[in-house]
Amino acid sequence: MAAKQSQKKKKNNRFYDYSLLFVIIFLTAFGLLMIYSSSSYAAQLAGRPASYYMTRQGAIAAVGFVAMIVISKVDYHFWVKFAKFAYWMSYVLMALTMFTPLGMEVNGKKRWLKLGPISFQPTELVKIALILMLAVCITKMGKHINYMRGLMRVVLITSPIALMVTENNLSSGIIIFGIAFVMAFVASKIRWPFYSALAAGVLGLTFAPQLVKLLEMLPFIKPYQMERIYVWLDPAAHKLNGGFQTLQGLYAIGSGKMFGKGLGQSIQKLGFLPEAQNDMIFSIICEELGFVGAIFVIYLFLFMIYRFMIIASNAPDLLGALIVVGVMAHIAIQVILNIAVVTNTIPNTGITLPFISYGGTSVLFLLAEMGLVLGVSNQIRLER
Q1: Potential cystine with 72: which of 82, 118, 371, 384 (Cβ 3.0-4.6 Å)?
Q2: Which of 327, 335, 349, 4 is nearest to 179 (CA)?
């Protein structure tokens, strides 16, 4: 009897971040609402029910929520046992996508892998596999991560798979490099390599207009990527080559003003803004809910990142902290990239807004990542 009571007390002393869980549920539900609002017109034009995209996303999100809860209730040390397998499997899946007929080409890019009735983007698996792999490797390195040799090992683990992803998906490649950058930065005591890389990135973005000719000569820059840079520099001059979507997105943002036109009242979604439910959904949020609605969405993501920081700082060990930091980096970078693209601050990279944009693979793997974070929170013991 006494043993049972002590076991019960141990369970009750465990923490579970319900604040984070609430934000995840709210963002996903809000995403479904905005997907319906932004896609209902396009769905009906294609002869489908108005709720077609929302229903599909909702079904996958429901599966994702079940997976998230299951993952969160299992000790995260169990999942890291599969880190190496997932890491090498991501190479296999990327190779199948790029070099075999199983890879599906959409809009000139082979990003989808079709295995029988199932099709998904392997890049989403790459992100979660790399987070687990780096968390394990950095933990095993111990103090060696404070030396250049340790950092180079992180680079060697990350670069091959990141470059494979970048070949057809620049935005996901940037995110993967960003995840490794943030995880190594948090774990390591040396700072100059990170500050140098950040300075180089800022300088490159600042002087991008002057570097266009140089970029044209680089062998790994593809024509469609150069096209996006031209559109970014002057969208009005390239209306027929991608500038149209950027301009319509900016019109949507501007027309929303302070409080928006009202939920469901967007004009740009009525055939003016292509694929409004995907990468450009933030434009529709701005148009329908205005500046106030857009700031509220950004605040929710900031609150989510704050909860990640709380969990990471209280994690039982370095392994758990690094898993949370990796997921935090993924979410933060993806949100920043999406909003920067929609506002034409950076060239279009074709990146979705987490939890809100339409995309079954994305929401499924994002919820799996949230399960890992909640799993780390569930291992935190509360002090009496």
Answers
A1: 371
A2: 327
